[in-house]
Amino acid sequence: MSEIFDLEKYITDQLKDCSINTSISNNNLFLKCNKRDLINVINFLKNDKKTSFSQLIDITAVDHINNDKRFEVIYILLSIEFNYRIIIKIFISEDESVPSISDIYKSSNWYERECYDLFGIIFTNHPDLRRIMMDYNFVGHPLRKDFPLTGHTEVRYDDLQKKVIYETVKLDQDYRNFDFTSPWEGFKDNLNEMKKIQKADNDKK
Fold first, then answer.
1. Domain residue spans in the chain?
2. pLDDT in tens, 57-75
3. Residue 1 binned pLDDT confidence (cut-offs 50, 70, 90)
4. Which of 115, 60, 5 is closest to 13 using CA atoms?
5. Which string of b and e fits 125-157 if b means at least 16 CB within 10 Å?
6. In terms of Cα–Cα distance, which of 54, 11, 16, 14 is closest to 30?
7. By CB atoms within 10 Å of each CB, which of 31, 72, 100, 171 scores lowest?
8. Rounded CA separation 71/95 (Å)
């Protein structure tokens, strides 16, 4: 398939019974679909000879905390034969689950476990859905935007007990504020205040 636009048209025609929306950006094909159509879409993209998306590159997620459909689950597939990449997106609410694609791509096993560990997204029919990065005693899911910066527990080695212990974090804290401003902003005013204090001290001398 010589042109990515031909690929987009072919996929759209073949998946006309599925609820999908496609677009092209930077020579990559983007496809949004309903979660109920996910398995059919993934199966088609991998096994159809004119698409041959044989490799799963990644599964990740984005937390849109203020949206009703809070989580955006993203699948990135690669067609080695045709040298095309497709990014598939589905949107789910916090209490929704996603069907596992581990029967289609074996590598999705660990990717889905990572999304579960870090975002708390449940993948139904997964063969072994458990934490993969965080400790089994870890509380919460650290890539959610409402997760506190210092977490809920701290881990340290206790010399008296001669073992690693877990303690509840006692530090009061706000949730993360994503204002995207420079971390250096505000220093100018602080420096000016320090200069005023130093000048007042020198005048007293």
1. 4-204
2. 999 999 999 999 999 999 9
3. very low
4. 5
5. ebeebeebeeeeebeebbbbeebeeebeeeeee
6. 11
7. 171
8. 10
pTM: 0.77
Q: Are 19 and 37 in contact (CB under 8 A)?
A: yes
What pLDDT, on the 0 to 100 scale, is given for residue 154? 79
- Dihedral sign of CA atoms 16, 18, 20, 24 in order: negative
Average pLDDT for residues 107-127, to the nearest whole number? 97
How far apart are the C-alpha atoms of 201 and 205, rounded to whole Å?
7
Place of tokens 């340290």: 156
Q: Which residues 6+ apart lie within 8 Å of 117 measured at CB?
A: 131, 132, 133, 134, 141
Please determine, for residue 43, whether its predicted confidence score (pLDDT) is greater than 60: yes
Q: What is the DSSP string of 60-121?
A: EEEE-TTSSS-EEEEEEEEETTTTEEEEEEEEE-TT--EE--TTT-TTHHHHHHHHHHHH--
